[in-house]
Amino acid sequence: MMNTKNTRSDTQSLSDSASDKRKQGAAAAMNRKSTIGRIGTLVVVGAVLALVISAGVNDAATSTAREPGTTRLAVDTAGNGVIVDGWSADAATERREAAARRHGMVDPVIAEVPGPGAAAADAVPADAAGPQAAATASPALDATLSTAARAKMSDGVAELAIAGGNGMVELVVRYDRHPELYEHARIERLGGEVIRSYSALSMRAIRVPAHALEELAIDDNVDRLSLDEAVSSTSVSSRAAANLPQAISGNSAFDGSGVRVAILDTGIAPHADLPADTLQYDFLGGQFPVPTIENGEIVDFADSPRIDPYGHGTHVAGIVTGQGGNSANDWHGAATGASLLSLRVLDANGQGSMSDVMAALDWLLQYGSYFDVRVVNLSLGKGISESNTTDPLVAAVEQLWDQGIVIVVAAGNLGNHGSVTIKSPGNSRKVITVGSLTDAGTADYADDYVSSFSSRGPSAGDLVLKPDLLAPGNRLIAAIPTGSHLHQTMVSRQRACTVAGCTDGYLEISGTSMATPMVAATAALMLQKEPWLSPATIKARLMRSARKLGGAPTDVGAGALDVDAALSETGVITGDALSPLLTQDAVTGSVMVEDTSVLWGDAAWAAGNMWADGSTWGDGGLTADGYLWADGYMWADGYMWADGYMWADGYMWADSYNESKTTNGGTPAKSVLFGE
């Protein structure tokens, strides 16, 4: 499966360049005083946040001061940005068109605009704050929407609601109670339609005109309006780097047998290395295949054809359970006995919509137990556009986690853009978020390092300490369909079978997408050994047993995956093993971290046992609300991300990474969910 030799990628120079740009802003950042309160509620006190994170955003989109009596708008629309001073009907039209382009509105029709008297109220602020801070940090947005409606909208939705017009907006609506049939009629009266209904999730994917967003929001049963954002795949290091058990270890007897891993991706094509009995269900384009259940047993699987025109999902599957039969056992998976279930949510370009991913998660909530699914692999993600407390994709994965299913998620491939680049749903405090480790190709672990492309923490807005750990993800070789997009376009990375008569293919790919199934496979091994383990205990054991690495915890997490050590761990968690929050003391500037010994309810899980140098975090004492005082200089760019400028607008966050879009194949119609 994996190659033991590696040199640093050319992208390292990009990382260095991004670091230089961040350092140039250090002096200005250090002069600003943060007034963040406890991040659990993320209440930001003060003026509207004025800095968009340095992540490749066009310079034209940076904030500008708003002088008294002047409305100033700055937006980045991939070259179509506008900066408007004052007010005019033409400017308002440009604003509405720009909002429509940014958020992928369907056939936008620009409505008539109010006159000069509405200028101050109808202006879109240059920089939007996080949704949790909306009531105090987005006065320009609040001024044009009712308080009740604004409180239920993500910033992207609020901007479109202000822009108005007849352009159709695709949303995921979260409800307090599961919506009844009359909700369909209400949406239709608003000029919209229901795209997807969910059974286990109290949500719906809908399409409504922008002018109807406020009326949609004020219904008592509506809890949250979020854009139906795009999702994409997240596209190997050696088995030795992950310390898979060798023959001399008692743990070598475990191969994942009896454990099924569900892979939400581009599909899993037939391949000699993969289980022939793998079933696939397709959720693209509104599909929702339903198996027939009688007396608690499946009598008709009603599965979909096994296809993977992109190739990403098949490669992920090979890392989990590839047999290596066509490569003389060189390129086999980490849990060769595990079973697979393929849920196809990404298309032939490695892209999809949040609502389709959520349909597959909703399906798992209903039918996963019939297939004995214990682990879910999500080598995909989307930009963070709202708090993890309101993000519908985060809510869906956490509902599965609460049902006892281990959720493993890619951190993202945006590390070259610096800190605060974790993607959703990897910003969930519950799930296991995986970054990528590069194996330097020697017998010495000391020269392994976090991959330059691996997304860094903390998470935008909520400041969750992520990733949770790293796993080998650089130049991994695994199964690939020979006719797939990746196989045909990455010719130099193709690897031939070593067995006579073999027609299957192998491919070398790098990415946190490849690191994630290494951890999912390890979870399968742990569940085979101890089937009673909870998701929280598996997460905690993986983190505590990880091989500790030098570097900022927001870069390397708890360290590098150590499979043998994880199988030998014995600790048990009774709670949720929430990833800790970070904050900064407003007076001293010191970084503070939630104390996991308090958060997880046992001193055995203290920071000193979980993170490299974690034992020093408490040297300054413990705050009354359970935070350890840590040395601010330990944290890469801590002076930047801890200064309160945390929220990247969802459209800017997603649309800034054109390199990532190109690499993953194509330009999204909305805001793409990329497979990492």
Description:
- The protein is α/β, with parallel strands linked by helices and 676 residues long.
- It is built from 23 helices and 26 strands.
- Strands 8, 9, 12, 14, 16, 17, 18 and 19 form an eight-stranded mixed β-sheet that branches.
- A hairpin with a 5-residue loop joins strand 4 and strand 5 (203-209).
- It is globular, with a radius of gyration of 24 Å.
- The two termini are 19 Å apart.
- Mean pLDDT is 73; it is low at 1-96, 99-142, 235-239 and 636-675.
Considering the chains and any ligands shown, give keywords for the structure:
disordered C terminus, eight-stranded mixed sheet, alpha/beta, four-stranded antiparallel sheet, about 25% helix, about 675 residues
> What are the segments in which pLDDT stays under 50 over at least 5 consecutive residues?
1-96, 99-142, 235-239, 636-675
Based on CA atoms alone, the radius of gyration comes out at: 24 Å
How many H/I helical runs?
23
| Average pLDDT number | 73
Largest sheet: 8 strands, mixed
Number of strands: 26
Percentage of residues in strands: 15-25%
Shape label? globular
Helix content: 25-40%
Task: Give the N-terminus to C-terminus distance in angstroms.
Answer: 19 Å
Structural class by helix and strand composition? alpha/beta
Compact summary:
By secondary structure, the protein is of the alpha/beta class. 26% of the residues lie in helices and 17% in strands. It is globular, with a radius of gyration of 24 Å.
